[in-house]
Amino acid sequence: MSNVGSPLLAQLIDALRVLPGVGGKSAQRMAFHLLERDRDGARRLAQKLVDAVDRIGHCRDCRALSESELCAICASPQRDRGQLCIVESPVDQLAIEQATGYRGLYFVLLGRLSPLDGIGPAELGLDRLAARLGEGGIHEVIIATNPTVEGEATAHLVAQIAKETGTRVSRIAHGVPIGGELEFVDRGTLAHAFGGRLVL
Amino acid sequence: MQRIERQPAFVLHERPYRETSALVEVLTRDHGRVGLVAKGLRSARPRFGRGVVVPLQALEIDWQSRGELGLLTGADPVGAPIPLSGPGLLSALYLNELLVRLLPRHDPHPELAARYATCLGELCTADASAQAWALRRFERDLLGSLGVAPSFEHDAGGRAIEPDRRYRIAAEAGAIAVGLDDDRGTTIAGRSLLALGAETQPDRDCLRELKRLFRELVTHQLGGRGLQAWAVAASARSRTADTDAS
Hints:
heterodimer; A: alpha/beta; four-stranded parallel sheet; two-stranded antiparallel ribbon; B: alpha+beta; CATH 2.40.50.140; de novo design (two linked rop proteins); 2 domains; five-stranded mixed beta barrel; 24% strand
């Protein structure tokens, strides 16, 4: 970090680098922009950051990010309480929410099984998931973990829990992307798409 | 700087590094376990292609070696990924954790790399006992390669192991025969130890004893700490009776 004359400014630039994709140069631009052109915006940003970090926790039922005990989806009377979709992260939940017409509930694992990173069943909240399924009322568990090795291993554990409680389990399909060409699809995806072909 | 080209390898583990890169641990044929920086592996359009630099996919890789970590410069898949699912997949994660924790970097064992590939293939069965047997033989060969396996044919005094006696394993000394009235600690039947030398799958009692034996030996090698995969297996097992592989 070059000497910017003001220790506070240097600290701000350094602090901005926590953001993904922000290196020294971008952090410097952001800091100068906030101080020279938009102090109100900067104040608002600072306040919102503090509010968000202090007040946003995890939903009691689904573990998604939420500032109330129950998130908006879990609290909504319009959602189908019989379906539960299992995702790895809040970003995945958002993706499904935006792309599909899914009207059921979610359970966010906040990670995926990875023994070498110390992430096991406890870290994924699987006990809580088992307790939730044990309460009854959910007739289908839709597993939407990522189609990676860890995601599939996670799916296997979740499926076991669901089967144990007698709940129907489904897994999202893997296949050729829409508008894609077979020639350019990777082997694993094509093998999955072929193996999971549908009868017409 | 050393350049290595077209080296057969399997990814054991991948960990995010910086914005779009990853640190991958690979098991290679001629260079043992190697840690590599894979730039652009986690971008929207992954370098080397989507689903290529992943566990359970046989690869041929190129890298530049500089000090402890190398830089991955090329990766080509060899054949389709190994089609593991369910308990087999959990067992594969167990093997990967075992290798990362026990095998030091840059300690080549070509025979072990070959055994790893064979073992992954053997895990592609729905038979839990066959999976367990595949894991036990891999553990035997891993500890053997590292030079820390006790003899499974002779006891600590050099006498041939007898199938009908029970033995206690002292990790350093090898098997010590115990009398019938001596039930201190865990013991194992001679026939279970002898089964490790024969290449035929023993019965479930033997497999259970061997599983416990290797857990003790691995824990000893890790200085008393266990593996996370065991907690995963325990969780899976508490839900189904039949997952006794890893």
